[in-house]
Amino acid sequence: MLTVENVRKVFGSLTVLDGVNLTVKPGEVVSILGSSGSGKSTLIRCINGLERLDGGRIGIDEFDISRSRDLAEARKRTGTVFQLFNLYPHMTALQNITLAPIEVLKRSKEQAEAEARALLDSVGLANWAGSYPAQLSGGQRQRVGICRALAMQPRYLLLDEVTSALDPEMTAEVLTILAKLAREGTTMVFVTHEVEFARRISDRIVFLEQGKLLVDLPTQAFFGPETGRDHPRIAQFLSKMRKD
User: Fold this and answer.
1) 229-242 pLDDT per residue, tens
2) Angle of helix 168-183 relative to helix 138-150, nearest 10 degrees?
3) Which end of the chain has fewer CB atoms surrounding its CB within 10 Å, N or C?
4) Do 2 and 59 meet the contact criterion of CB atoms below 8 Å apart?
5) Record's family (predicted)?
6) DSSP H stretches of helix in 124-208
């Protein structure tokens, strides 16, 4: 189980996360919505240990990410896909995917490559294993990024605005892969502006506003009329996103 307990994060005089609580059970898909600057990406960076907490606690199964002795084990249980791909430009798609399993999980090169090729095949990139990032489209690079995260066999997949840098056609490619992962029971925490997609694949929706968790509701309830009546800010946000 992934647990976020009263988490606080401050940058200078700006409080980016303020008392956030969240629990994600194995097999759940939880989408995090909110306007730019609401703290969504910072929350993902805190969960995977890229940002130090200024208060509260985050647990990945039995590991507390604030403890240095636990952080490495916690990171083995999470895979993160970023919005700007973050692939190594001097490595092929295959090499990008196999690097961490070989170095961190101590897989043999043969085993890591076999697993990587299977992942590439599952996202329609079997023929691009030897290609470098510069030779791939944005959608292809993001699919390689997803394969790289999945190669670590994570219990929790963290996705930070993975379609924000893509055009509509490439966005559709990536969302198709994520929908397949959701159907297969992959546990995901998904930061996104793709509201209708979040509605389609999520078990729950979390809404952040100015660093505070405003609601955490089952998907159907979040998009129901009562949420809009009780929380005008959410109604305003959804109305704007649908117009866009």
Assistant:
1) 889 999 999 887 76
2) 20
3) C
4) yes
5) Belongs to the ABC transporter superfamily.
6) 138-150, 168-183, 195-201
